[in-house]
Amino acid sequence: MKVPSLDPRVLLESSAHRLVIKAILTPVGGLDRFQPAGFPEIGHVIYKAPRGSSAPEKVCIVDSSPSMANHLETVCLLAPQDPTLVPALDGLPHMRCVTGEGPDRTELVVTSFTEGHRLASTYFLEGRRLLNGKPHEQPFSDELRAHFGFRDLGKKSHPLPADWWSVYKTIFHHDPNSLVHGILFPQWQIKIARVLTAVHEAFGAERVGTSGVKFDKIGKTTSGQPIFAKDEETAETIRATFVLDLGLVRSFGRANAEGVHGLDESQKTLLIALSLWKIGSLLRAPFRYRSGCDLECGGVEVGTATGEAAAVSVDALLPDIQRHIKEASFERGTTDVFWPMATLFKEAVASGTEDPDDRTESDSNEG
């Protein structure tokens, strides 16, 4: 099979609806076992996948789509505890929530790359945008809704068909990453699906039960000396699958005799380039998905939704992201949204004591 072009502009102009990238992963150091995502009450998910006339295959979900989205955002940051974007992404707009005793001296709380709801997070919507060092008089949600351009109908607010072009443009210019991974504003009935969907699975999986014990040598804890169970997995193949929805990207903008509606070609190209850059960055070096899941890439195949695929190098997935950021012609840079420290960090109330602020809020909601 001919390898599909990985040039973002060529992909945008092609007739392909999807680009499918599959990466084979192996545990670092030649280990047999790895730890999938899971919760103590649920454990790891293993299901039997039908294989036609063959016997069903046991498949383990190593990471879900939301979990993989988080991993793909992690590679954009300098370090797990440093949410500064890596130099390769300089100039890419995103949101930052900052706090402090006053807007002239602030410290970072979260960004749209660390918040699960991204641009739609309450940290941004209910704060006030900083402009020339001063908080805007309105909450950022009011500003955002005004940029979206639809009428305020209270609980029934929603975009009319022509309003969607403004919705796409506004989200893109504040935080294009939110379009890559999808975003939901339930209060305005805005739901945009993921451009990039990723799943992480292990095939031919078997559960491995191990155990451990915690020692308390001087008896200063209340847990005693508990014995605990630990689940790990082995598998014949571990694979990460990335699906890039090219058709969805094209739907974000349209040009006709009246001009460009929504995103232009360079802006849509950036969404594809950013998606590819994230995938390549995740696979380029060993990546620790969690403590017991340190994996490295053993090969990559690229194809379309028909199932045909051809091998490529990881480096082929890394476009010149700086060039695409500059060509997108952003109107703004990073947006800082301010919360007073006293509002963001309220003192804890002693157990059994009523917080008058909470009572007032509850009363107003009931009224």
Task: Produce the secondary structure layout.
Blueprint: H1 8-13, E1 18-27, E2 46-51, E3 54-63, H2 65-74, E4 77-79, E5 82-85, E6 95-102, E7 105-111, H3 122-125, E8 128-131, E9 134-135, H4 140-148, H5 164-174, H6 176-181, E10 183-185, E11 190-192, E12 196-203, E13 206-213, E14 227-234, E15 237-245, H7 246-250, E16 253-256, E17 259-262, H8 265-284, E18 287-290, E19 293-303, E20 309-312, H9 321-327, E21 335-340, H10 341-344, H11 356-366
Overall description:
Strand 19 (293-303) and strand 20 (309-312) form a beta hairpin. It contains eleven helices and 21 strands. Mean pLDDT is 89; it is low at 355-367. The protein has helices spanning 8-13, 65-74, 122-125, 140-148, 164-174, 176-181, 246-250, 265-284, 321-327, 341-344, 356-366; strands at residues 18-27, 46-51, 54-63, 77-79, 82-85, 95-102, 105-111, 128-131, 134-135, 183-185, 190-192, 196-203, 206-213, 227-234, 237-245, 253-256, 259-262, 287-290, 293-303, 309-312, 335-340.
Primary descriptors:
globular, 21 strands
Mean pLDDT: 89
* Number of strand segments: 21
- Major β-sheet annotation: 8 strands, antiparallel
Oligomeric form: single chain
Low-confidence stretches: 355-367
Radius of gyration equals: 24 Å
Our measurement of the CA-to-CA distance between the termini, rounded to an integer number of angstroms, reads 65 Å
Give the % helix. 25-40%
Q: Write down the overall geometry.
A: globular
Please identify the structural class as seen in this structure: alpha+beta
Enumerate how many helices there are, as a single number.
Answer: 11
Strand proportion, as a percent range, falls in 25-35%
Whole-number count of domains: 1
